[in-house]
Amino acid sequence: MELTRAYKFRIYPDAKRQEEIDERLILAQQFYNKILEKSIASYRNGKTKASMAQFNKFVREIIQEDKKYLKLYSQTRCEIEFRLLRAYQNFFRRIREGNRREGFPRFRSRDRYKSITYPQDNGSFSIRKDRLRVSRIGTVRIKLHRKIEGAIKTLSCKAESAGMKVTKVDARNTSRECSNCGNIQDIPLSIREHNCSRCGMQMDRDINASINILHRTTALGQRGSHAQGESVRPQEKAVLEELRTDKTRPLLDAVIE
Q1: Given its phi and psi angles, is residue 33 left (phi above 0), alpha (psi -120 to 50 degrees) or beta?
Q2: Confidence of residue 3 (pLDDT cuts 50, 70, 90)
Q3: Are 194 and 202 in contact, with CB atoms under 8 Å apart?
Q4: 142 and 127 in contact (C-beta within 8 Å)?
Q5: 128 CB-side CA count, 13 A
Q6: I need a labelling partner for 231 at 20 to 30 A (CA). Which of 10, 62, 149, 225 fits?
Q7: 3-state secondary structure at position 87
Q8: 10 Å Cβ neighbour count for 81?
């Protein structure tokens, strides 16, 4: 029996690629729900039970109604159909077992549809050194922490933000306020380093602003003293390290089989 290995690597999309990924996640979620909506209506009208043939018919209708779903790679659309077919197989199994309580497969909200899959390595994706190219999305940086053994068959892009809590933060003065002592001073936009006139702290202006946002979001309490060289709280230290090493925040994982 052939052994299948799965590798999980972090990817770092830039702003443009992140927009492309986000758009396709939304399209995939909408595409899934549209097929589900049509299949439920068909089942209730006593027509053919859920099958790939039926789904393919619905897909043609959906794309005819709105061409935006052509932005999804063809194999990705097929994988969405297979996801829904598996959900229906569980539905029919429950019926056979006499358990109708959970009903039809559920519609997916955006926070419950967080991955898109390329089920065949037929040119839809490729990896060259530290770059992952994905059809209809583009090229993103990938951190390959181990060697990939054997041929790649499947690629899934999974969003890390599923279930993420979003907190509204007042961003006023975050780049003008010293993240060490709280002193606020005027700094021209052309100056990219924060040099505090009170405590002497020196730090990249964007990193300083990010730490201030972290303070306001997580209520860390008393700030540690960077100027005096005192220890920085673990959460702050982790943010500092991430911001210093890479300004593009990792948002997604690539799962390769």
Answers
A1: alpha
A2: low
A3: yes
A4: yes
A5: 5
A6: 10
A7: helix
A8: 20
Place of tokens 């990219």: 192
Q: Is 195 helix (H, G, I), strand (E, B) or coil?
A: strand
Helical segments of the chain, H only: 15-44, 52-65, 74-96, 205-218, 234-245
pLDDT tens track for 63-76: 999 999 999 998 89
Query: What digits encode the pLDDT tens for the residues 211-249?
Result: 776 666 654 333 433 433 343 455 555 545 544 444 444
Could you report the per-residue pLDDT of 106-122, keeping only the tens digit for each? 888 877 888 888 876 67
Q: What is the pTM of this model?
A: 0.64
- Say how many CA atoms lie within 13 Å of 114 toward its Cβ: 14
Tokens of residue 175, six digits: 């780049």
Q: Please tell me the distance from the alpha carbon of residue 214 to that of residue 14, in angstroms, as a whole number.
A: 22
Q: Where are the domains of the chain?
A: 7-165, 167-248
CA pair distance 67, 77, nearest whole angstrom = 13
- Residues 6 or more apart from 147 whose CB is under 8 A from it? none
Neighbours of 235 (CB within 10 A): 11
Residue 204, both tokens: 């990249």
Place of tokens 């990817």: 11
Burial of 38 (0-12, 13-18, 19+ CB in 10 A): middle
